[in-house]
Amino acid sequence: MVESPLAAARTGRLYLLDVGRSTYPEHNGRSLTCRSDGSHIQELITNIRSLPNGLAVDTDHQHIYWTNMGIPADNDGSI
């Protein structure tokens, strides 16, 4: 079971992004959470195809936001 952002923050969990470049040309990025020592990794969101590169956790409103770099030549980044 994945904890809510507020519960995770209280327990010291980290949130991180995997851009997914190792799956080129697919770019299957994902959002993860883990304990502060790097153990107990959990996937939150998978198959993010737009190269995720920034992450913010809003514990007050229980939301996670990320930015996508997209393809620079196409000017198609997003939040």
TrEMBL record:
Q: Which Gene3D superfamilies match?
A: TolB, C-terminal domain
Return the InterPro entries for the record.
6-blade_b-propeller_TolB-like
What protein is this chain from?
Uncharacterized protein
Organism (species) = Penicillium hordei
